[in-house]
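Quiz preparation item.
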């Protein structure tokens, strides 16, 4: 485990080869994917490579076991600053309880800091609020849809 409480794992950007390592199946544990062919997957990986979306994963034994996305929103506020939005945090059901969610939140927050984001926010369900509080996040304002 590292100093932040999570396991020592490599968090890296999504790459084309992750199509065959279960990335889409993992994301399917979080949300409905629809039809994402290999061609669509590869095109999207190329589109997001330079931002402002950054998709990161944790691989273990050739399988993607955790993932998350950071969106860097370009603002006029704060001197044309940027706000980081964390999205699509998912840990494989068989890997939960190992601290990988914390690792992913920490890694995405560090990416946001390196990009110069003046704040990092996320939306979550009421049921997931305690997890994000354990990751150092605090409830602020209300999301509307």
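Solution:
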């Amino acid at each position: 485990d590292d100093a932040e409480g999570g396991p020592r794992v490599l968090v890296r950007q999504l790459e084309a080869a992750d199509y065959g390592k279960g990335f889409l199946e993992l994301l399917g544990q979080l949300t409905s994917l629809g039809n994402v062919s290999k061609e669509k997957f590869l095109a999207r990986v190329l589109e997001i490579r330079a931002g402002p979306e950054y998709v990161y994963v944790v691989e273990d034994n050739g399988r993607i076991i955790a993932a998350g996305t950071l969106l860097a929103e370009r603002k006029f506020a704060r001197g044309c600053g940027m706000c980081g939005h964390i999205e699509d945090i998912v840990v494989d059901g068989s890997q939960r309880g190992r601290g990988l969610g914390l690792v992913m939140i920490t890694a995405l927050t560090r990416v946001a800091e390196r990009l110069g984001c003046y704040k990092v926010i996320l939306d979550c369900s009421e049921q997931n609020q305690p997890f994000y509080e354990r990751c150092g996040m605090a409830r602020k304002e209300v999301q509307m849809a």
